[in-house]
Amino acid sequence: MSMKGVEPSERPNWWQAYDMSRDMVKTRMKRLSSLYAKGQDQEKLTIDKAAAFYGFEKDNSYYLPLVSKRMLDAWSVVLNGDATIIGYVRVDGFED
């Protein structure tokens, strides 16, 4: 299938239910407030706008970097304390 241009991530038989990974996500997610604190003014504004749009509180939310084949460091996924996805923010979540 790869020779035909079908990426492994596009193959449903390679997928698994998110709940199977939730505990691992909980061990790796980081407080959104720390990403906010180290951010530049534009990043803070971006997080504030996302919080207003999605309705989450920065102090009670978490994040993990989000990657795709097009962008490796431009987005972060926002999660609640149960590791449920509650939004996205265009801020690099990788640590230097």
Q: How much is the average pLDDT?
A: 91
The rounded distance between the terminal residues' Cα atoms is 36 Å
Count of DSSP strands: 4
> H/E series, N to C?
HEHHEEE
List the helices and strands and how they pair.
Blueprint: H1 22-28, E1 30-31, H2 32-38, H3 41-54, E2 62-66, E3 75-79, E4 85-89
Antiparallel strand pairs: 1-2, 2-3, 3-4
Fold and architecture overview:
The chain is an alpha+beta fold and 96 residues long. The protein has helices at 22-28, 32-38, 41-54; strands at residues 30-31, 62-66, 75-79, 85-89. Strands 1-2-3-4 form a four-stranded antiparallel sheet. A hairpin with an 8-residue loop joins strand 2 (62-66) and strand 3 (75-79).
Provide tags for this entry.
four-stranded antiparallel beta sheet; 96 residues; 3 helices; single chain; 29% helix; alpha+beta
